[in-house]
Amino acid sequence: MTDDKTKDASGARPVRDSISEMTEIVLPNDANPLNALLGGRLMHWIDLAGAMAAHRHSRTYVVTASIDHMDFLVPVRVGDFVILRSSVNRAYNTSMEVGVKVWVENYRSLESHHVSSAYLTFVAIDAAGNHIHVPPVIPETEDEKRRYQDAARRREIRRTETARRNEVRT
Ligand SMILES: CC(C)(COP(=O)(O)OP(=O)(O)OC[C@H]1O[C@@H](n2cnc3c(N)ncnc32)[C@H](O)[C@@H]1OP(=O)(O)O)[C@@H](O)C(=O)NCCC(=O)NCCS
């Protein structure tokens, strides 16, 4: 994390300020009877890794507003390392889209595979639970710029879906 000297005049912060990494070793308590990691446990770790990036960007408390679609691409076994990398893709008024990419690493075979990717939206709050404004994000690398653009498209899809669900409820 960088200090406030890297903030630009508008208060915006570079994506690199929020980059986070978390590593877990899969233990029997994380697995099903076939020694494969439970999807729910991975979702929990994704939520935590995502929250770390959101905390780093907003420098305040956050709540998870939504988690987009997730695929589990390869099984993860007891004893494997699970590596989760997260960063804020884009920030809006009070919310931030965070991307989390998950890798499995086997330390005996030295193999590493992409397990899952997820997009989460976090809303910044103060200690009383009021929503608070978050600074904009500055994408610097080509990947960060691509994710920044794509985030706007996903936000539009989420909004359309939320409106559709609200219509169905009424
Ligand atoms: C998420 C939550 C804060 C949204 O609050 P709200 O008052 O209903 O929503 P608002 O319409 O004021 O929107 C606030 C922001 O959240 C975003 N948001 C709201 N619902 C969302 C959703 N389902 N997905 C993505 N973003 C969402 C809005 O786009 C808005 O972002 P912006 O300020 O950057 O434009 C509120 O529903 C909540 O506290 N939910 C429980 C969160 C929680 O406990 N999470 C842990 C899992 S149990």
SSE topology sketch:
Layout: E1 13-14, E2 20-25, H1 39-58, E3 61-67, E4 81-91, E5 95-106, E6 111-125, E7 137-138, H2 142-169
The chain binds coenzyme A (COA).
Coenzyme A is lined by residues 63-66, 92-95, 121, 123, 131, 158, 162.
What do you see in this structure?
The protein has 170 residues and is of the alpha+beta class. The radius of gyration is 17 Å and the shape is globular. 28% of the residues lie in helices and 32% in strands. It contains 2 helices and 7 strands. It starts with 12 loop residues before the first strand and ends with a helix. The longest helix has 28 residues, at 142-169. Bound molecules: coenzyme A. Coenzyme A is lined by residues 63-66, 92-95, 121, 123, 131, 158, 162.
The helix tally amounts to 2
- Looking at the overall shape, the CATH architecture is Roll
Note the overall shape.
globular
Could you tell me the CATH topology label.
Thiol Ester Dehydrase, Chain A
- Considering DSSP H and I runs of 4 or more, what fraction of the residues is helical? 25-40%
Number of strands: 7
Low-confidence stretches: none
Distance between the termini: 45 Å
Class from secondary-structure proportions: alpha+beta
CATH hierarchy class name: Alpha Beta
**What does the main sheet amount to?**
5 strands, antiparallel
CATH superfamily: Hotdog Thioesterase
Fraction of residues in β-strands:
25-35%
Identify the strand order in the major beta sheet: 2-4-5-6-3
